[in-house]
Amino acid sequence: MRKIISIAKEHKWAIIFALFCAFIIMAPQVYFRFAHKDIYQGVEMMAASDETAYLSRVREVQDGHLSLANPFLKEAKNGPYILPPLGEIIVGYLGKIFFLDIRNTILLSRFIFPFLDFLLIYSFVYLLSKKKLTALVASTGVILGSILLNQRAIFQLIKGVSPRLDFLIFSRPIIPSIHIFLFFGFLTFCWLFLERKTLRWGLLAVLFLGSSFYLYFYTWSFLYVFCGMLCLFFLIQKKWNDIKRMMSVMLGGIVLAIPYFFNLYSVSRNSSYAEMSQRFGFVASRDTVLGLLITPLLIIFLVFFQKQWKERFVFSLALLFTPFIVLNQQIITGRVLINAHYHWYCHTPLAVIFLTIILFELLAKTRKRSLEKIAAFLMICASVYVGVFIQRASYDVREKDAVDSQRYGPVFEWLNKNAGKDQVVFANDNFSPMAAVYTPLNVFYCSPAIYYLGTTGERLQDSLFSSYRLNGLKAEETQQVFSDQRVRISGALYAMYYRETTGGYEGMPEAVLEKLVQEYQGALSIPPEKYYKDLWEKYNVDYAVWDKQNEPQWQLNNFSFLEEAYQNKGLIIYRFNPNAQPKLAQ
Q1: Do residues 573 and 543 make contact, with C-beta atoms less than 8 angstroms apart?
Q2: If you compute the radius of gyration of the chain from its CA atoms, what whole number of angstroms results?
């Protein structure tokens, strides 16, 4: 305990900065609650990229479905998972420990994980640089200011325009916040294991490496390539003991990942696996990728990074060679991954860290401590300014929608009190993802479900057609509307497949679009009453929510099998009664 207190005192500024950065991350959601306490109905400001998808998964964990086979659909709860569940399990049980609902669980995670991420990044940089100031600057840069590595973003900031309007990336609940925790946790313990040769650091490295399989493909794939590169360099140096240490860590990680590989095998045997892999954009290619960020970084590293400390140089060199392997794995595998995940969540943080280390080592050569302090002050101020600016601009843009969403609060409350767990609700594209977050219900469909095995192509088409039909799309208008909305249809049915294979969603072939037009027009021959009754029986729908304010054309009150159960502020909840007698006229 004394040692922990001593370390905390020695690195008190790291703790202070970590708290400060974590507060900036969570501030918009906290401020929204207080600024609108008179109308707040428990619906959070959720504008970070893919946030509702992550929150739905956390809610699924809290509802007891830990495998996360499909957090949205009733029919697909027991299959293998496509997206590993560890991050959501960690966050979900964090909330359970403190008896928090989903709203406060996420708010707490927005604070805790950026705080821990900062400290782990700080620890890693401090171990490599032996300088607290360098570690503070790098950690603040990664958490708040990494977008400054983007040239376009710099020009936007100069013009007074925010380069992001969906908050800082660490506002996202799972990735990158928990990814960074495991990523830099492993790098820190791996370095300590190699430097100090102590078993406990090796065991921690194994734990973090093995755990990464259950979090994020891009985490473990990057780290294993890094370990392989490090072993290669050790082989060149004939450091046999270090090779043994790294091989033991890699083997330990594989042992911990055995259940993951069993799940992966089950996924590969699933009948919809081939279709699903296309939706993720894993397409065939063997093209070379250089990397606009990592190539100049490696050149700068080789020219300016100090080489006297050979162990550090080799470790760092392996780390910076790794991006070239992961970016070009398709040369061997023939399958292209979505390289942006590596760029934002692996390469960019490393670039911030090594550019900071190199800069401060160059400044140290001047033997003017004041220059280091001035540079540190300016860089920290720049990162804080950018972070606060993005958070404020994002808040201003998203505030109105968050206020409008409060009217959903009473509907969620009614469903929580009256609907059964895992029942199914039909609603529009705005309500459905939030229903998966704020209630224990499943949904008829929402867009994040496209990335799960249980979501068949038939389900996607049924959802798309039912939406167009409720919106009143007639047969003679179909060709023109489908052509005009080609991008939307391509994304709704095929996700990223055509974007990755043709360069854009609009690359969906004309023959595919024409077939959809014909099938939609053919479905119009079925009377609406029968069409929707059969559809909702097929997918076990129990409730329908009609948002009359946003979907006035739906006219769900015309269906005899829907019985009104609740109404508030233009939102009507209907119970689905398949035994109701049909109306005579439609």
Answers
A1: yes
A2: 26
pLDDT of residue 286 exceeding 70: no
CB 75 within 8 A of CB 454: yes
Does residue 176 have a cis peptide bond before it, meaning omega lies within 30 degrees of 0? yes
Provide the phi-psi class of 91: left if phi over 0, else alpha when psi is between -120 and 50, else beta.
alpha
**Residue 546 backbone phi and psi in degrees, to 5:** -105, 115
**Cα distances (Å, whole numbers) of residue 379 to 24, 386, 467:** 17, 11, 50
CA 562, chain centre distance (Å): 37
Q: pLDDT tens digits for 360-404?
A: 999 998 878 889 999 999 999 999 999 999 999 999 999 999 999
Q: Is residue 276 predicted with pLDDT exceeding 90?
A: no
DSSP string of 61-81, one letter each residue:
HHTT-TT-S-SS-GGGSSS--
Q: Which residue, chain included where needed, has tokens 């005192």?
A: 9
β-pairing, 424-426 vs 442-443, is: parallel
φ/ψ of 403, rounded to 5, equals: -65, -45
- Helix, strand or coil, per DSSP, at residue 571: strand
Residues 492 and 252: their CA atoms lie apart, in Å, by: 41
For 382, the token pair is 């720049």
**Has residue 583 got a pLDDT over 70?**
no
- Strand 571-576 vs strand 562-568: parallel, antiparallel, or unpaired? antiparallel
